[in-house]
Amino acid sequence: MRAADLLVPYPTVTLSTPAIEAARILADADLPGLIVVDDRGAPFAVLPGTQVLRLAVPIYCQDDPALTYMVDEAAADVFVRELGDRTVRDLLPPQPHELPVVSPQATALEIAALMARTRSPLVAVVDGGLQGAVTLHGLLDRVLAA
Amino acid sequence: MRAADLLVPYPTVTLSTPAIEAARILADADLPGLIVVDDRGAPFAVLPGTQVLRLAVPIYCQDDPALTYMVDEAAADVFVRELGDRTVRDLLPPQPHELPVVSPQATALEIAALMARTRSPLVAVVDGGLQGAVTLHGLLDRVLAA
């Protein structure tokens, strides 16, 4: 089995998508992460769910736990409101050296090793344009049944 | 809202659980990750789904993509069989400096920042013993509705 056999259609966001909308897409469809595409529809970034959540965490809290302790419970409940109308582009974390992207020919083992190495529960499948994504659970279900 | 309000009961595995069984638990219950507890029931590790998958990726393939390309499709389909009866203890990756574990008093913002920082889509909630876990999607649903 190859990426072509494992991929599923997958929603995308763009660099201009408001970050709050990206978080809602992730939450509403219970996705493991999001694919951010550029103007030509090619994957620009693949964000695991934790890194979509990171878009919504105020910059001053991202790396310093001590600062999060100083925010009271009422304000901590509504931290996503601080996002305002900022876009994915405004908040995108530095991109890793290796994007979780494969060709349709990638084997199950190649995809598993890539997910483990990049800590990404989804990989984008690209052949010219974006063909879809392989999710961690989609892959696991298939390899455990093999 | 605090971790105590956000936590859900969460399955655990131990260091002696066969790695293949851990992968099955993750897949069957569609979990974002697994909590590995020690003999006293305290969290020893919190493994995001990608790191549970990593348990099943042969060591020689984990860091070197070139080696995965050399495995043919038929063998790549059944890579999990190489696990044999090895346990979570045998295959556990080096543990990060910071475990995604909070007290029941942690705020939504503290939990979100911790998930983003540790790249873990679940955090264990501990008060004496393990009380449960907060998942990324459970947290997102609540903070987006707040």
TrEMBL record, chains A, B:
Q: Which InterPro entries match?
A: CBS_dom (IPR000644), CBS_dom_sf (IPR046342)
CBS domain residues are 9-41, 98-143
What is the protein named?
CBS domain-containing protein
Show the taxonomic lineage.
Answer: Bacteria, Bacillati, Actinomycetota, Actinomycetes, Micromonosporales
